[in-house]
Amino acid sequence: MSTRSRRPIAARVAALLTAVAVLVAPAAPAAAHNALRASEPAAAAHLSAPPTRISLTFLQKLDPAFTTIVLSDAGRRKVPTGAPVVTEATGTVTIDGPLVNGTYTVAYRVVSADGHPVQGSYSFTVDDPAASGAPVVAAPDSAGPTAAASGRSTGPGPWPLAAGALIVIVVAGGAVLLRRRRATA
Prior knowledge:
The chain is built from 3 helices and 9 strands, in the order αβββββββββαα. By secondary structure, it is α+β, with helices and mostly antiparallel strands.
């Protein structure tokens, strides 16, 4: 085979790879949804003194209008807190009264600046030796976790992985095709 016949095939493979890359590239930013980066008190913390506020810091800026932070006790009763105060990527609520010894759950639902909701929860325990009474231990959730209680976030799903696999297949196929063409030349 001559050099002329190889160039159109190489050009076609390059054009195909470029087209696939252009189609997949816009999906890449969607894979970077917001996530909880840090919390105060921390998940699974055992505190010797009750906290006076809950502070959650995320990877991206939050939309204050759609930020919810709820504190519940071991009996799943809502603990009174102030309204969430949002500063950039951090949402904070103040706890209206003192917490007794026990296990507490922080549940959150926030919407990132990109418009995607993220929800989850975590627990911490207050075990103040100066407080009277034994710690209250949370009962397991017999109803099964919801998305908010399980700590799962709504994410992009399998599409970025599928797109990446498709790119690898196309590139590998193009390389095999080029080698076969060169071998027969």
